[in-house]
Amino acid sequence: MNSAKLATIELSYIDLGAGTPVVLLHGFPLDHTMWDAQIDALADRCRVIAPDLRGFGKSPLGNADPQRGISMERYADDVAELLEAIDIRERVVLVGFSMGGYIAWQFVRKHAKRLRALVQCDTKAKADSDEARALRLKMADHVAEWGSARVAEMTGPNMLAASSFEMNSSVVEEVRSVIERTSPAAIAAAQRGMAARPDVTSLLPTIKVPTLVVVGAEDAISPPQEMRAIADAIPGCQFVEIPEAGHMTTMENPSAVNDALLDFIKGLRIK
Ligand code: MLT
User: Cβ distance 190 to 72 under 8 Å?
Assistant: First the structure.
């Protein structure tokens, strides 16, 4: 992996291939490895940048306000700083997955000039309900004593389709082990940041770049009908439902996600 020194953090990232820059933002509590299959497929025709967001994978957490955690805007600013630091001047195709999607909305809001196109996978535009926010804050308060393994037990079952538990034990194991590797401090900081994230529904009709929305047919966290409503609110947005996948589309049905991404990127008519 590469690493880049930004103003307040040193971020680790994958940088492979050449051509149109495509930036992949991972979900919670994961790291860039959730994109391994897409990195392989895209690097033949694009320059693929896949950071470990601060606190995740090989990137350090840095200073996080213990009460406020890390905002989605802060992660988005890190991505913009990373592009600056590695001298990417061309506009990028930004691909966000779930928490990475919450960050991508903030990137759209603050760094629209850097954007060529947007892909939102298995994410939400609405803020949390009071109940969901309370659950996040409970995890943030207790994860240091619980440990990350308990978080994997709590969140894992919701992340995958029932068929993955029956027939795809390697994906089940990979998801479990990446969550277990994530530090409790990073989990707490991201949960606080997600609990405080704004509702971005009013942003959707203002998005001017080509956009694709992707969702697993059995996603229990960001269900297809919710993702369809996001696609309907964005002018000209394309929508692809991935069969045989729950929330973790990129790992559960990587070839369908790769096809959706490659078709979309080809349709942009950029080399
Ligand atoms: C993710 O996959 O990033 C999480 O499900 C996001 C969330 O907790 O809302």
Answer: no
Q: Cα(56)–Cα(167) distance, rounded to whole angstroms?
A: 28
CB of 171 closer than 6 angstroms to any ligand 1 atom: no
CA of 27 to the centre of ligand 1 (A): 6
Please, are residues 244 and 165 in contact by the beta-carbon 8 Å criterion? no
**249 near 164, Cβ under 8 Å?**
no
Say how far apart CA 121 and CA 228 lie, in whole Å.
11
DSSP strand pairing (10-16 vs 2-5): antiparallel
- Give the pLDDT confidence score for residue 185 in this predicted structure: 96
End-to-end Cα, the chain, rounded Å: 25
Kindly list the averaged pLDDT for each block of 10 residues, start to end, along the chain of length 271.
Answer: 96 97 98 98 96 98 88 98 97 98 98 98 98 97 97 94 94 97 97 98 98 98 98 98 98 98 91 48
From residue 185, alpha-carbon distances to 9, 26, 194, 245 in Å are 16, 18, 14, 30
Most ligand 1 atoms within 8 A of CB, residue of 26, 28, 247 to mutate:
28
